[in-house]
Amino acid sequence: MKYNNPLRSIIGLATILLWCGPASAAQSKRADYSADGEFYVYAVDDGRIQYGPTEDGVSLRTFYICYPEAVALSPDGRLIAAIGNFNGCTFEIKVWH
To answer: What is the pTM (predicted TM-score) of this model?
Structure first.
């Protein structure tokens, strides 16, 4: 049986997002898919983070973060992490389950 540690997933997502700091803003990741390709997540400039199944593209949930820079979806599609900023201030990381 494969052990799935939620904390390890969160730390992995946070590491990915921290890599997308101000120095690499041009390389920031604004969309992601689950490992099996079943779910997607993407960010738009107005702060919306959309999440849903790739099969029909319908958004199941909408999350918010100021000035999204990057998003990540855990391999199992259960955790969403996003990094945003406000007027160049310290980055904020949010994780949703």
So the answer is: 0.67
pLDDT in tens, the chain (97 residues): 344 445 455 555 554 444 444 444 445 689 998 889 999 999 988 889 999 999 998 899 999 988 888 899 988 888 899 988 876 666 788 888 8
CB 60 within 8 A of CB 52: yes
Residues 31, 37, 39: CA angle, nearest 5 degrees = 60
Contacts of 84 (CB under 8 A, 6+ apart): 47, 65, 66, 67, 68, 69, 91, 92, 94
Q: Beta strands 61-64 and 68-73: pairing type?
A: unpaired
Q: Is 11 helix (H, G, I), strand (E, B) or coil?
A: helix
Centre a 10 Å sphere on the Cβ of residue 10 and count the other Cβ atoms it contains.
Answer: 16
